[in-house]
Amino acid sequence: MKKIRKAIDSYIDQIEQKWKALPDYRQRLLTKIFFAVYLLLSVFVLLHIWLKPTNTQKILPGTSIKGVPSEPDIKKNPGIHSHQKTLK
């Protein structure tokens, strides 16, 4: 675990040295580009969620699911309740 932590720390130090070696105008430009990409991605995700089609059926809590039989048909699938036959 210590080796992994040391490797991560040295990698972060290398990246930080490369960043500090860049001129100030280049750092500001890259920061603006990263922020613009982040902002566009955030707006895209929010619009995608907001404009998502609402025709999907939602099951509200407290309601039953329609189309599910209340009792299973044992004649069609005898394996469902085969353990109950042995209990009797």
UniProtKB/TrEMBL annotation:
<keyword id="KW-1133">Transmembrane helix</keyword>
<keyword id="KW-0812">Transmembrane</keyword>
<keyword id="KW-0472">Membrane</keyword>
<feature type="transmembrane region" description="Helical">
    <location>
        <begin position="29"/>
        <end position="51"/>
    </location>
</feature>
<protein>
    <recommendedName>
        <fullName>Nitrogen regulatory IIA protein</fullName>
    </recommendedName>
</protein>
<feature type="region of interest" description="Disordered">
    <location>
        <begin position="62"/>
        <end position="88"/>
    </location>
</feature>
